[in-house]
Amino acid sequence: MSSKICAVIDYGMGNLHSASKALEHVSNNTKVLVTSDPDLILKADHVVLPGVGAMRDCMGEILRLEVDQVVAEVAKTKPLLGICVGMQALMNHSEENNGVNCLGHFDGEVKFFGEPLIGTQGIEADQKLKVPHMGWNQVKQVTHPLWNKIEDDSRFYFVHSFYVDAKNKSQVKGFGHYGKDFAAAISQDNVFAVQFHPEKSHTAGLQLLENFLNWDGQD
Amino acid sequence: MALAKRIIPCLDVDNGRVVKGVQFVDIRDAGDPVEVAKRYDEQGADEITFLDITASSDDRATTIHTVEAIAEQVFIPLTVGGGIRTIEDIRNMLNAGADKTAINSAAITNPEFVREAAEKFGSQCIVIAIDAKKVSKENEPGKWEIFTHGGRKPTGIDVVEWAIKMTHYGAGEVLLTSMDQDGVKSGFDIELTRAVSEAVSVPVIASGGVGNLQHLADGVTLGKADAVLAASIFHFGEHTVQEAKEHMQKEGIEVRL
């Protein structure tokens, strides 16, 4: 049986080791490639757009390496998974670094959590919350194949100071809350993106990655 | 829905073995770091911290291999500290599979290193590690100073001011160890933890002094810590991470179970 290929897009931003190791861990017949080569990315069956660090640097590298065109091409046809800043890069625009235009695949703005950020509900009500939002928080799921075998309200590992405010709420497939509601997962057709780090989210995260590798890109 | 407070088992690693000392001396063997990390992962640890306590250059290759082996099997965040002095050290650890690196004495020698590291790799992977000793007297308001060289050398730097400065330089998290409490098992320095946690906007990990499960809960409820770190109560089988979380939940703390 010929094996499938999952390309993890390497545009020089940070740590791709974790994402590729976790994908390898859950893949049965998928070869994981960390690459910036457009040909290899366009030939892959599944594509992951990771990202850490500041948005200006991320978008700078994405444009410099012409990853934007590759992502636009991939987004038309193949299952694509955006992770953390990779999700934010798919939005229209980010407030980070005095404002950065992003890839505009999804309508919406990337906004700062704010300082001070004050909790609004439950145990966090009226508490001053730390920014970045760092640690394990719950995600309220909206039915989608990528949540297969993952219990609703499972916790995933987040590290971010900016959050996605999606314009089209029907695209939000996972709701998070930290002082305010934010999109923890967003999806349309064959593109799915998450604010948390599935590669660092233990069994729930590994299951999501496995679901992605088994996903044909249909809702 | 609320963010969970984290429990972080800490592996002090010397020459490829997990060890635990009392106040930085009197070392006791606690096993193979990869096996220990896997055990904590299975018990539901929220993160793992790996501190290379020898950190001489000869051992650096061993450390990188160990970090690689842990990262291949443990899919929760991994922080590596001990002897992180250059941008190259950070890059090597991240490439080996670490998610964050803890900078301690190199920041004291050259504070700009923290700024440079945060700009290069992002604040999310730069932890400022602070070893604090109380210098105020019993009836005075709390004051703590940073000590280096295993607690022997005072630096004259005020801990709270330093924590604020380092987070302004880009550190995304503070790992705060009380050298007075470390290994003593009588609980965190609550006053210190609270002073730092309330002074900075980023998460604070309380460290040093855990002897029972209530100490972990106190670190969060009284010390206002965002995460609690412990070593010996987990290493020698006194408690599992799961038990610690169940106890914290009973105390009204949000945890990931």
CATH evolutionary superfamily of chain A? Class I glutamine amidotransferase (GATase) domain
Largest sheet of chain B: 8 strands, parallel, barrel
Sheet with the most strands: spatial strand order of chain A: 2-1-3-4-16-15-14-11
Summarize the biggest pleated sheet of chain A: 8 strands, mixed
Number of domains of chain A: 1
Q: In CATH, what is the class of chain A?
A: Alpha Beta
The tally of structural domains of chain B comes to 1
Shape of chain A: globular
Helix content of chain B: 25-40%
What separation lies between the terminal Cα atoms of chain A?
A: 27 Å
Question: Largest interface, with Cβ-Cβ < 8 Å?
Answer: A-B, 43 and 33 residues
The DSSP helix count of chain A reads 6
Strand residues, percent of chain A: 25-35%
Describe the 3D structure:
The complex is a heterodimer of chains A (219) and B (257). Chain A has 219 residues and is an alpha/beta fold. Chain A has one domain: 3-Layer(aba) Sandwich (Rossmann fold). Chain A has 6 helices and 16 strands. Chain A has an 8-stranded mixed sheet with strand order 2-1-3-4-16-15-14-11, sandwiched between helices. Chain B is 36% helix and 27% strand. The two termini of chain B are 14 Å apart. The mean pLDDT of chain B is 92.
Give the SSE layout.
The complex is a heterodimer of chains A (219) and B (257).
Chain A: E1 4-9, H1 17-26, E2 30-35, H2 38-43, E3 46-49, H3 55-64, H4 67-77, E4 80-83, H5 85-89, E5 93-94, E6 100-101, E7 108-112, E8 117-118, E9 128-129, E10 133-138, E11 140-141, E12 155-160, E13 162-166, E14 172-177, E15 181-188, E16 191-194, H6 202-213
Helix pairs in contact in A: 1-6
Chain B: E1 6-14, E2 17-22, E3 25-31, H1 33-43, E4 48-52, H2 60-73, E5 78-81, H3 87-96, E6 100-103, H4 105-109, H5 112-121, E7 126-134, E8 144-148, E9 153-158, H6 159-168, E10 173-178, H7 190-199, E11 204-207, H8 213-221, E12 227-230, H9 232-235, H10 241-250
Parallel strand pairs in B: 1-4, 1-12, 4-5, 5-6, 6-7, 7-10, 10-11, 11-12
Antiparallel strand pairs in B: 1-2, 2-3, 7-8, 8-9
Helix pairs in contact in B: 1-2, 2-3, 8-10
